[in-house]
From TrEMBL:
SMART domains: AAA
Name this protein carries in UniProt: ABC transporter ATP-binding protein
Gene Ontology MF terms: ATP binding
Residue stretches making up the ABC transporter domain: 2-234
TM regions (residue ranges): none
Keyword match Nucleotide-binding: yes
Amino acid sequence: MLQVKNLSFAYSTNQVLKGLSFEVNRGKTLAVIGESGSGKSTLLKLIYGEFDIKKGEVWWDNKQILGPAFNLVVGYDFMKFVAQEFDLMPYTSVEDNIGKFLSRFYPEEKEKRTNELLKVVELESFAKKKVKNLSGGQKQRVALARALAKEPEILLLDEPFSHIDNFKKQSLRRSIYEYLKINQISCVVATHDKNDVLGFADEMIVLHKKEVVIKDSPERIYNDPKLPLVASFFGEFSVIEGQIYYAHQLKIVQRSEHKAVVKQSYFNGNTWLVQAIYNSEYIFLEHEFEIQPKSEFYFKVMK
Ligand code: ADP
Ligand code: MG
């Protein structure tokens, strides 16, 4: 189990995190969300042991994570980190990058394991390619496979699918999280993409103003986002009489006490996203059809 206890951190005088406490059980995934600059990457680096912790503690089972003042080499065998800037060996093949830390004394094992991981990240046909000739997304997949190679007990992922195009993203995501579940690997994933969270994370924390402001299951946070910041993570929303509503929770009706004027409609796939003005504020709602600017309509809220 990962335990973060009352953790605070500052880069010299710039306080970034204040009094964070949370736990992640074996095999569970925790998503960390927050605006850019809210300290997500810093938190992962602290858990990894990249910095010395002056206030608070981080534990994995009964081992305390210590920083460079105590460890000659940063990091621990049981923990792997895929950072936002992944450092691979550019002039070496994909398979050699993945197998880098696997023992060469068991060549058959090594090959089997490398092939298994190539499959997880869907790079089988790139095995012999040099990493320098890969796209950003493909490099990210090599970094993920390499982190899994030595079967860590806990994996730290910093925006792990950010470079991967949408064609591949969903299947890769399923493949990685399935692998983590089957192998009971704990995971802390920092992300600004709701698709990394919904359907995959067991718990989620929201970093805001240096603190954990919300900690709950993704489902409960989605259903009761509490802050506009949190709602915005999941999609377009409106604040009406102090309540937060997602775009699909506002419905156009024949008549109601809420009258609004369309500003613009945006094609959104299954529906149109309608931006409108209500009580001199913007609201967003989903509608089956496009509505022309300046049209008036009535809507009701449903929760
Ligand atoms: P996030 O990953 O949520 O975008 P970061 O953890 O990268 O946030 O950054 C949090 C804050 O710490 C930001 O204000 C950033 O400018 C600052 N920061 C990040 N890394 C360093 C560093 N190595 N030295 C000094 N300040 C840093
Ligand atoms: Mg970051």
